[in-house]
Structure formats: C-alpha cells, structure tokens
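Field: COMPLEX_INPUT
Field: COMPONENT_COUNT = two
Field: RESIDUE_TOTAL = 427
Field: MODE = joint
Values follow.
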Amino acid sequence: MTRRGMRALGAAALLALSATLSAAEPVTIDIAKFAFGPKEVTIAPGTTVVWVNHDETPHTVAASDHSFVSKALDTDDRYEHTFAGEGDIPYFCTVHPFMTGVVHVRKP
Amino acid sequence: MKDFRHEEEGPASPDRRKALGCLAAWSGAAVVWSIAGGVPRTVGAMGTGKSAATSGFTFVQISDTHIGFNKPANPDVVGSLRRAIGEINALPSAPAFVVHTGDVSHLSKPEEFGQAKELLAEIRVDHRHIVPGEHDALDDGLTGYLRQFDHDGRNRPYFSFDQNGAHFVGLSNVLNFKAKTLSSFGDDQIAWLRNDLRGVSHSTPIVVMAHIPMWTVYEPWGWGTADSEAALALLKPFGSVTVLNGHVHQVLQKVEGNVALHTAMSLAYPLPTPGQAGFGEPGPVTVPAGQLGRLLGTRQVQVVRGRHALATIDTPIEH
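Field: COMPLEX_OUTPUT
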C-alpha cells in the first residue's frame, strides 16, 4: 500500500470514529408549552435522546409501540432513551395525548 | 383576567342579562343557577337563594386540588384547600357529603395522596366521594390513588350510591390514553354503568361524577371523553341527570335535554379558556397577586325532591 493510500485509510478511520462520536452525542428534545421541540428528529442508531420538561405541568414520553415509557416528568425533570435499531418511532405524552413526536433512526 | 366563566350558556336572556349585571355588582360573588326547561336561569345571588333546609339536601363539589403543586401559579395549594374547607365547614346548612372530581394530587406521589387524605378529613362531613383525575394516575396507574381513596373496598375507581332518593355514580375517565385520542371510560366501565342503572327508576335524579368533561369542550387540549356518548346514551331515559366534571379549572356548562353538564373551578390554579388570547396551551395561568382567590372555588349543589332541576352555586374562595 502506498503512503498516500495509508493516509486515505487513516482519514477514513478518523471519519468513522467521528461518526461514532456524533452517534454517541445525546440529542435533546425540549418539552415546552405542551409540545415536543423539535417535533421530529433524525438520529443514528445508538444515539441517546434526552427529553427535558420545561412546563409547570407534568408530561410523559411514551412510545406508541410501548417500547419505552417515562415516569411523569415534573418541571426540569429529564428522561433518556437510547435508540438501537433503525426505524421511525412515534411517541406521545400519556397525560396529554395530543402532544406527539417522532424519532427517525437512520444509519448515516 | 377577564370573566370568561359564564360565556358558554348561549344567547343571553333578559333574566340572564339582569343576573350578569347583578354578578358584576357582586364582583365575583356566587350565583345560584337553576336549570328549568333545559335553560339555565339565575334565581338569585348566594344568600338570597332558597334555603336548602326546606326539602331535599345539599352537597358540595370540590375539584382539582393538585396537592403537591408548588409553582408560581399557586405556591400554596394547601392554603387554598384549607380556605375552601373553612368555607364548607361554615355553611349555614351542613352538606350531606362532599364530592371531589379528581386531580386530588399533582404527581400521584404517595405523600401527596396521604396529605390530601388528611386535609380532606378536616371537612366536617361523614362522607367524601372521590373520583380520580389523570394527575392521580401517573406512573403506576391508579394503584397509589386506590390505596388511599378506594370507595368501597372493591379496588376500582368507579362506584355508585344512593342518597335521599337520588342516585350517584362516580366514574373514571383517566386511564385509557392513546396517542391523538381523547381519554375514555372503556368498555368494561360502560358495561358496569349499564348494569348499575338497570335497577334505577327513570324518575330518580341521577348525579354523575367524572374528572374529564363528558362533552368535548376542546379536543386539541384533550378536554373531552372519547366514549362519553355511550355513557350519556345510558343516562338519556332518566328525567333528571346532572353531570359534575373537573379538569378544566373553570365553570363551563352545557345542557342536552334532561342532562345538565357542569365543570367546576379548581382549588389549585386557573387554566385558560380555549381561544383565550395569549394562551396556546392548557398550562397553569399565573394571575396578579390578589386575583387568584377569585378564580378558585367550590360548588354547592342543591337536590330538591320532586324537581328536575338541581341548583348549583359556584363560590370563589375569595368573595
């Protein structure tokens, strides 16, 4: 392998590493004024999503397919879930079922 | 905050206009409503209304105490409840019992239920009939709630009882939440209600208690019950049906034939009215100091034998 080829491989490894790092970086969704913001996010498999409730009213985060459900989140409470596989996961607040969001899990 | 609480009754009659003038003069004092011929009609301000002692009985409805809430909209919900309890205990004619239409607690915590139970015991009545709100059903469903407030030892949140010839039904519409759908009673409870009402004569006054309104006040805020029509269909044959709800923290009313539906004030904090300028969501409204007590309150309900109408008196804790 040429020196140039070695360098290219190294760059590719670095890129792969940074992709892994970005997948490990948590994504935050704010719960405010009875809405999830952003309402839809697209993340890589293995990413952790953190929901933070800013309202004075308790909310929950519950997957429509029942794959996860939080306890009631009071003001400033947080809930984390790590998404392993690819797919579209709709979720809602069980206390206010008209509050909905979707997590899209896609390989980068 | 503007007075929005009496805007739901349809076109103003001359009587009502006079009554509203009276209400303005009383600056927020209680008004007695009687329902006659399907039309709510004001019969007098509190103190000039007919005495309940003549016949029948009265009971008191409280709602949405949210014990555990401590945010700026009301840092002292215990104080607000105690103030209401003082008013109830001072009523000239003692109520037969008190009903609580849900959201006893704010976060369904065992200590909130425990504190609420102790506070409600300060009301000088023999019975407290309570239905759960969705704030009482967080995390573990109604397990914690039923530990303190199981009505009749059957470990379920719905029940019925009779008082002086009137039939009372307590229901739960706070467990069946699905995405983008109003909450519901569920088929089991509707079947139970059908069975419960089977032996009741159609001339018996019926009073139904449930937390979430049994008509769709505003769907995007979840202010309605998906299968309320199924419940109301079972109540249709009865000559006098009064539905007492909470959840919306304000007095709204609707009359459908012989069925009169009322929501009540909260004892914790006000919520906006759908469409109210500046409010896009049903979160606690923080009002200027001194105004809160006029937006929280209790309701007296008068059951008069032989009359279809039950009179309701909504009284702010500050009046």
